[in-house]
Amino acid sequence: FPQIMRTVVSYQCLFLSFVPSDSQWDHDPRVYRRTSQCDRLCVDIGSHVAETPSPDVSHQYTPKCLSAHKGEATACPEVWQDGSSLRTTIRAENEVEANKLANNYRFGFRKWKSHVTERPIEDRSDIVRELYSELNFVRPQGSLITCGNIAYLILFGWWISLAYLLVCVLMFLTIIGVPYGKLCWKLSCYFLWPFGKSILKPRSLVRRCCVKFPHCEAIPEESDSKEVKESTPLLMPPSVPIEVPPQRTRYWCRVSTYVWLLLGYPLLGLIHSLACFLSWILVFTIPVAKMNARTLAIILLMPPEDVHIHRLKKPQGCDSQVLLCCYHAFNWYYYKYTLDGINVFAVNLLPLVITTLVVGYVDTENQFVSSEAKFAAAVSSIIPLSYYIGMGIASISAQSNFAVGAVVNATFGSITEMTFYITALLRGHKAGTKCYEEIVKAALTGTLLGCILFIPGISMIIGGFKHREQRFNSRSAGVSSALLFISVGGVFAPTLFSKAYGSLVCAGCSSSQANTSGPFTCMDCHYDMSGSNEPLYLRHIEPLVYTISVLLPSAYLIGLIFTLKTHSHIYDIQVSDPTNHKHFISSGHGTVHWSRLRALSVLIMATLLMAACADLTTEHIKPILDHSSISQYFIGVTVLAMVPEIPEIFNGIQFALQNNISLSLEVGNCIAVQVCMIQIPLLILFNTFYDVGFVLLFSDLHLWASIFSVIVVNYIFMDGKSDYFQGTALVVVYLILLALYFFAPSPHTC
């Protein structure tokens, strides 16, 4: 019966693919594509067939369902099933996206929210389609008196209108440019408040046609006094006069055109370019940028008599073409806007990276820009570079097999974050101070605390506001928790060993009594293995550090084999779509934004830029450490640790809003495990070949804060449920630990 039903559905898909549809529906974005009918049929029958149990097979695959639409094959659900857990599946637009979603659930892979392939605009929601519109269509308008439109009037409208008014006066003074002066007057009134108005271009009378029949020609009626002959052509009678538009001077043959291009257009081009730049940088005012760019590129280069401004309340016919029509200057959803798959915020921050590097390496004496400003710019530049690295890693992993994806994630995911640590250690070794080493240890600990506490906590809080209770796979979370315990235990084992067998060194001791045998008051006591008890370090602690640096990557490799090969069913994939289909639907391979070669090039370039920004950060952090009243521990734990992880924080929040809290938790756990099992062993390996004085011994505050955080997180994750209260508990614990670092005294080496 299942095979018969699948065959029936295949023929229904073939039939629906060839059913003709009205051309008006094809252009209406609110109407589903014809292939979606086939998809729904495939899903329905696939779900019926999937109800048949398969007790002896742990992974079940449902065959493909053919679709002849556009010559492509539509893959039906691909189901992954585990006998001990609920079936979890994914739904994606194509195989590349499905591979990317599957990698999100696998251990050792960087979790990435954004798409790595292009999505047809007709498949997007109405809100997203409006973001990518060219502002050249008329739609039913609501209220035009909004806070965003009023903000446009205050920020842009008045000075753009004033610029047009000044150019209008200039054109009237030239006499020959009077037509353009009239155009500037109309545009001055338009840009003061453009909402609900449309700039139209009349169509040629010869090209007029009916809306419902865009490819036909109208047959005029013959007069009753004339007799239609059989030899007269039916579609084009020879005696029918054709209305021809009046002849006029060509646009580029007018003297006024060149007067306009020399006097008026450059000034307005500067004004529109400035408005376009400012509104684009603000992101949420991108409609204003589109409006200015379209005016500069199209409207100002048209004959002035062809530009008409009207207040439209309904769509126009074929007698005119809408060139520009804007209803709102502000849209909150523009944070989703992408260019070639790159988020608009990452695009806008890319000039900051270039400016930071140029200023940082040219102004070496800090004559034009202060050291504090360079430090802030360098740290901020790490944010977009982290995004590009994440996008490149996700693109390569989605187009490669598990082994290549795991290697790329482990390599670039670790090296890019180690650039700051290595540059700081090199600079500290060159300066002969241990302060940079303490900053690196504080940054490592801060990354652990932020990924263990803050990222899951803030995701639970924001996701809990939208979803009352969220559930996650407690078994996969248990694997991550076990690896987290191993990681933290291994990293801090040398520190515990030094506490048990090391010597306590104090900066100074004094006795308040005359008797020297009385109690002493000692200050700044710590365990120092590098000086006073060097034999213990060389004979016992250093071999222990090397042993741990081998065991931790081995444990990471075993975790990869366990989760990707032998027990891959633990990471069951579950992505809920709006229609609640429990299947994977693929319409092909999809067009990737970045090919493997391009993604690899971006990774290499972003890594080099990251190293340069890290070098500037460590160069200009010294004045801040010397003159700041804040503890150096706090600076390392917060700014240096969490700023590079801002893209991961947003990924975790977006996963939680989609009721996918499992990925939100894995985002932080994955980074924390990689820090302990890959980055720290690599730092030890680097120190072995080039001695920069890095010793794997942490302060007591780092030790107990990390251990306490791991215990709290494992207690929260025990029941496989989350809500905003549990997230609040994690964030509060994180803030308490930050308060400890804020009020803690600076390291004795700084």
Automatic annotation (TrEMBL):
<keyword id="KW-1133">Transmembrane helix</keyword>
<keyword id="KW-0050">Antiport</keyword>
<feature type="transmembrane region" description="Helical">
    <location>
        <begin position="342"/>
        <end position="361"/>
    </location>
</feature>
<feature type="transmembrane region" description="Helical">
    <location>
        <begin position="724"/>
        <end position="744"/>
    </location>
</feature>
<protein>
    <submittedName>
        <fullName>Cation/H+ exchanger protein 1</fullName>
    </submittedName>
</protein>
<feature type="transmembrane region" description="Helical">
    <location>
        <begin position="442"/>
        <end position="465"/>
    </location>
</feature>
<feature type="domain" description="Sodium/calcium exchanger membrane region">
    <location>
        <begin position="375"/>
        <end position="493"/>
    </location>
</feature>
<feature type="transmembrane region" description="Helical">
    <location>
        <begin position="373"/>
        <end position="390"/>
    </location>
</feature>
<feature type="transmembrane region" description="Helical">
    <location>
        <begin position="663"/>
        <end position="686"/>
    </location>
</feature>
<feature type="domain" description="Inner membrane component">
    <location>
        <begin position="147"/>
        <end position="197"/>
    </location>
</feature>
<dbReference type="InterPro" id="IPR044880">
    <property type="entry name" value="NCX_ion-bd_dom_sf"/>
</dbReference>
<dbReference type="InterPro" id="IPR004837">
    <property type="entry name" value="NaCa_Exmemb"/>
</dbReference>
<dbReference type="GO" id="GO:0005774">
    <property type="term" value="C:vacuolar membrane"/>
</dbReference>
<dbReference type="GO" id="GO:0006874">
    <property type="term" value="P:intracellular calcium ion homeostasis"/>
</dbReference>
<dbReference type="InterPro" id="IPR004713">
    <property type="entry name" value="CaH_exchang"/>
</dbReference>
<keyword id="KW-0109">Calcium transport</keyword>
<feature type="transmembrane region" description="Helical">
    <location>
        <begin position="402"/>
        <end position="422"/>
    </location>
</feature>
<keyword id="KW-0813">Transport</keyword>
<keyword id="KW-0597">Phosphoprotein</keyword>
<feature type="transmembrane region" description="Helical">
    <location>
        <begin position="630"/>
        <end position="651"/>
    </location>
</feature>
<feature type="transmembrane region" description="Helical">
    <location>
        <begin position="258"/>
        <end position="284"/>
    </location>
</feature>
<feature type="transmembrane region" description="Helical">
    <location>
        <begin position="544"/>
        <end position="564"/>
    </location>
</feature>
<keyword id="KW-0812">Transmembrane</keyword>
<dbReference type="Pfam" id="PF01699">
    <property type="entry name" value="Na_Ca_ex"/>
</dbReference>
<dbReference type="GO" id="GO:0015369">
    <property type="term" value="F:calcium:proton antiporter activity"/>
</dbReference>
<feature type="transmembrane region" description="Helical">
    <location>
        <begin position="150"/>
        <end position="178"/>
    </location>
</feature>
<dbReference type="InterPro" id="IPR005185">
    <property type="entry name" value="YccF"/>
</dbReference>
<keyword id="KW-0472">Membrane</keyword>
<dbReference type="Pfam" id="PF03733">
    <property type="entry name" value="YccF"/>
</dbReference>
<feature type="transmembrane region" description="Helical">
    <location>
        <begin position="477"/>
        <end position="497"/>
    </location>
</feature>
<keyword id="KW-0106">Calcium</keyword>
<keyword id="KW-0406">Ion transport</keyword>
<dbReference type="GO" id="GO:0012505">
    <property type="term" value="C:endomembrane system"/>
</dbReference>
<feature type="domain" description="Sodium/calcium exchanger membrane region">
    <location>
        <begin position="600"/>
        <end position="741"/>
    </location>
</feature>
<feature type="transmembrane region" description="Helical">
    <location>
        <begin position="692"/>
        <end position="717"/>
    </location>
</feature>
<feature type="transmembrane region" description="Helical">
    <location>
        <begin position="599"/>
        <end position="618"/>
    </location>
</feature>
